[in-house]
Design goal:
The protein is mainly beta and 435 residues long. It is 6% helix and 66% strand. It has 2 helices and 24 strands.
Length: 435
């Protein structure tokens, strides 16, 4: 039996218990259509008209949940390679409240566990040990690059495993220690090479497997109501070096005014066997501060600024804006090592008929340059859209997008989207039997 067929049978085996025992069936169906012109080479372009069919479905009862989240996409004007494409982002079975202490997931699932973030085809368990201690462990193969519903073939070189230990000694203190081990192969490719006498030949390049081992310690402390402190340190376990350090403070000075400040240290996170690990890597330090001020019931001011320090250079990032009942307006500035940019962004909307009809307009202007010896480039973009909800569970959304700069006189794109939410109560007999 082929690996692909075995994978499908395994997925179906995980799904069947939830289908047989489900008390409710709910989800969302999203149909989108996006058309634009694509310029692959100078003087040549193709018209793309991509259609997307997204879905999320849940079968559940008190202790069991089956969730599937995926998408089908295809280009109806100029099909691309591998069209149509079927992507499955989540496909898992979850047992909740096992012995009132544990939760188990099997299948394709997201992982958010401190330093570890990703998607696996495997298992994840969470256990509560008393009031103070939480344990999480996970292991599985990586999702295939195609995101199809199949198990990756080279499992021993494509996996993610780890866990998290969380301790809460009091209502105001929270600490956690997390770890992951990740292996990932990269696809090989053919390229042209020349021998010692100049003869050209084709050589297959097989990159080495990427290897990561990371650990992190983080903690939060609510100093008083409205004021909290957070810290985090990420450590590369192969090189025993810190790749990230963070310390942030948030405080509410009054019912209207809140302030925040943060310091972040970053060093590039490289695979253990990467060729780049033999070079000196550039570290940076970021100092950030911001505010949020409630002027009135429907009017807020907010701002944020950050200074990024490199070894021999620096960058500045600033933003300030207002939010109202009819939209928002903000100004952004970037300067220094990362390039220069000044921009204005506006978003305007107005709801009619009890939020069933919502026209909106988005405008953006930017002036930027990538290097100090280059001339500034200006960009203007706009989007005009409307959201219509004829009934509670249906919504129709359309948007016309336009862009103008020195490369495009007028780049125009159209987006159409339809969404439908549903909830159905299935047989109530199983619910009565559980009571």
């Amino acid at each position: 039996m082929s690996t692909k067929r075995t994978g499908w049978l395994l997925w179906i085996g995980w799904m069947l218990p939830s289908l047989l025992m489900a008390q409710s069936f709910s989800g969302r169906i999203t149909t989108s259509f996006f058309t634009y012109e694509r310029s692959d080479t100078v003087g040549e372009s193709t018209r793309q008209a991509r259609g997307y069919q997204g879905f999320q479905i849940d079968f559940r009862n008190r202790s069991l949940l089956f969730r599937a989240f995926g998408q089908l996409d295809h280009d109806f004007a100029s099909p691309l390679a591998n069209d149509p494409r079927i992507r499955m982002y989540n496909f898992y079975l979850q047992w909740r409240n096992i012995a009132r202490r544990a939760e188990l997931k099997l299948g394709r699932q997201p992982v958010f566990s401190g330093v570890a973030v990703g998607t696996i085809d495997g298992a994840q368990i969470k256990i509560r040990l008393g009031r103070l201690l939480r344990i999480k462990a996970f292991a599985g193969t990586l999702m295939p690059a195609s995101q199809q519903l199949k198990i990756i073939s080279d499992a021993k070189n494509n996996y993610l495993a780890g866990g998290q230990l969380r301790i809460r000694p009091s209502a105001t203190l929270n600490f956690s220690l997390s770890y992951f081990n990740k292996q990932q192969t990269r696809p090989g490719y053919n390229t042209l090479r020349a021998d010692s006498i100049g003869s050209v030949f084709t050589q297959f390049i097989e990159p080495a497997t990427r290897a990561f081992q990371m650990a992190a310690f983080d903690g939060s402390w609510q100093i008083r109501p409205g004021t909290s402190l957070y810290g985090r340190t990420d450590v590369d376990m192969y090189g025993l070096r810190i790749t990230r350090g963070e310390l942030s403070l948030q405080t509410r000075l009054s019912n209207r005014l809140s302030l925040n400040a943060a310091y972040t240290y970053r060093s590039p996170r490289l695979p253990w066997n990467s060729i780049f690990s033999v070079f000196n890597t550039e570290k940076n330090h970021e100092i950030e501060t911001g505010f949020y001020f409630q002027v009135g019931p429907q009017f807020q001011l907010q701002g944020n600024g950050a200074l990024i320090l490199y070894t021999d250079d620096r960058s500045l990032r600033l933003s300030v804006g207002v939010n109202t009942a009819w939209g928002s307006l903000n100004y952004v500035h970037r300067s220094g090592y990362a390039g220069d940019l000044d921009g204005l962004n506006a978003y305007l909307y107005r709801a009619y008929r009890q939020n069933r009809f919502l026209p909106n307009v988005q405008l953006s202007w930017a002036s930027y340059r990538l290097a100090s010896d280059q001339a500034r480039t200006r960009l203007l973009s706009a989007a005009i859209g409307v959201l219509y909800r004829p009934v509670h569970r249906w919504s129709l959304d359309s948007q016309l997008q336009m862009l103008h700069n020195k490369y495009y006189d007028l780049d125009t794109r159209l987006l159409l989207r339809f969404q439908y939410w549903f909830f159905n109560q299935l047989s109530s007999s199983s619910a009565e039997n559980e009571q």
